Amino acid sequence: MALFVGLMSGTSLDGIDAALVEIADEAAQRPRLIDALCLPLGIELRKALLELTQASQVSFAALGATESAFCDHQAEAVRQLLCRHDLPPEAIAAIGSHGQTIEHAPYADAPFTYQLDNPSRLAELTGCQVVADFRRRDMAAGGQAAPLAPIFHQALFTDTTRTRLILNLGGIANLTRLGPIGSSLPVIGFDTGPANLLIDAWHVRHRQGPIDEDGRWAASGRIDEALLERLLEEPYFDLTPPKSTGREQFHLGWVENRLRGNEAAVDVQATLVELTAMSVAQAARGFVESLNTDLIVCGGGARNGHLMQRLAAHLPGVSVLGCEAFGWSADWLEAGAFAWLAWRRIHRMPGNLPEVTGASGPRVLGGIYAP
Ligand SMILES: Nc1ncnc2c1ncn2[C@@H]1O[C@H](COP(=O)(O)OP(=O)(O)OP(=O)(O)O)[C@@H](O)[C@H]1O
Ligand SMILES: CC(=O)N[C@H]1[C@@H]2OC[C@@H](O2)[C@@H](O)[C@@H]1O[C@H](C)C(=O)O
């Protein structure tokens, strides 16, 4: 048995998730979540990161300063997590650090994906071995570099008889399809489009606070069918996987370009929730085998009761389960994935699924930084 820490800060830019995970050397045993926490980014750091994601030009000074501040925050999250369990740094086999995605451009002429991270500094500050830079090897091998979580979903959730769909509702939504053990169904995984990032951004613009708590504001509005149709015309939704996306594609400007100008703000919010529910349901529907499919929902969107209701309305007959039934909280699945991917790296096992990302083959992902 060994202990790993996974660090993830996703497209919502809400905080750094840190998960303490116990992993057995035998690949057959499922990793176990021991504890986790989220350290909020704070107003200044969030603003600096958001600016980097939106800027067309970036100064090295801004990049360097933000990278250091971000890394200090990661180290603080690790410190708090280890402190809770009285664990010294030597007790941790490795930290798996995702970093903060600043730009993801798998469709550029020269494709790239950039995660802000400073694993050398993180190793220095924590005294732990760090594994980082998980995405770029997959892209170097011709893949999308995202989503990476499906291989972790496969390890955690594959069932003997049932088909399982795992849906992450973060800033972006991604879906994994796992056939039952022994079935010939390949693993499928891809980003379906926006989950919460448009909902959050519209809320910030028109209301106080970053989150439409439980989707209550959206629930009080009326879906604007014409706007919904224009939003759903986005060609990304019809692309066949492998595919991945991010803030570069789905941002407030993308919504504004499709407004007529006379919509009530609350109706736009209702419509954005419906956009997430419909685009996810459309993506999932093709994989639902009647009466034999579970949908396991994770990510912050699982706490948005209105979004969950709209999703269920578009997927009648599908049984919706929380990760909790499997010993994971919906909030910590992604951080857990990067702890587990660090374990894979240390043991030189591949971290990607070529059938998901489109890479030319399995690859060992990430670089190792000594403590
Ligand atoms: N109580 C709640 N009510 C409504 N929405 C919520 C609630 N709690 C969380 N959320 C939503 O979940 C989001 C955070 O989700 P999560 O932390 O899974 O995203 P992420 O990991 O940053 O994104 P990604 O998976 O795309 O990288 C918040 O920004 C918010 O939109
Ligand atoms: C480039 C990037 O950071 N992508 C994230 C993002 O957040 C959700 C979705 O888009 C997913 O593709 C991915 O994260 C998870 C952890 C993944 O790779 O599976």
Automatic annotation (TrEMBL):
InterPro entries: Anhydro_N_Ac-Mur_kinase (IPR005338), ATPase_NBD (IPR043129)
Any one of the GO BP annotations: 1,6-anhydro-N-acetyl-beta-muramic acid catabolic process
Role played: Catalyzes the specific phosphorylation of 1,6-anhydro-N-acetylmuramic acid (anhMurNAc) with the simultaneous cleavage of the 1,6-anhydro ring, generating MurNAc-6-P. Is required for the utilization of anhMurNAc either imported from the medium or derived from its own cell wall murein, and thus plays a role in cell wall recycling.
Catalyzed reactions per annotation: 1,6-anhydro-N-acetyl-beta-muramate + ATP + H2O = N-acetyl-D-muramate 6-phosphate + ADP + H(+)
Binding site for ATP: 10-17
Keyword annotations of the record: ATP-binding, Carbohydrate metabolism, Kinase, Nucleotide-binding, Transferase
Gene this protein is translated from: anmK
Enzyme Commission code(s) on record: 2.7.1.170
Pathway note: Cell wall biogenesis; peptidoglycan recycling; Amino-sugar metabolism; 1,6-anhydro-N-acetylmuramate degradation
The protein's name in its UniProt record: Anhydro-N-acetylmuramic acid kinase
MF-aspect GO terms: ATP binding; kinase activity; phosphotransferase activity, alcohol group as acceptor
Family: Belongs to the anhydro-N-acetylmuramic acid kinase family.
